[in-house]
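Sample intake sheet
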Amino acid sequence: QVQLVESGGGLVQPGGSLRLSCVASGSIYNINTMAWYRQAPGKERELVALITSVGSTNYLDSVKGRFTISRDNAKNTVYLQSNSLKPEDTAVYYCYTHAKPSFRESFRDYWGLGTQVTVSS
């Protein structure tokens, strides 16, 4: 199977920046879409940014112009550069991918365990 491990979260002041990373490892035959989701206390998990296998991107309206998603296919890694952070960005950020572990296994969803991002003065 595929494992996803996030890193880069932490405490930052409003207006600051963080760069989140997510590395996919294990049995990997093909990785399709990769994305970042987030979930704040008492709220539903929401899609923050998505990037396809060919580099097309899509963003949550509230983060457009501030966040940038990118990927390095050679490293099986997806990044989220988050700038001009606001308190409302505080959440657990989860890495997601739709991947195929082997030739005889189907594509399926994989999730990381999450990394905490806290924006506070």
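Comment: The mean pLDDT is 96. The two ends are 40 Å apart (CA to CA).
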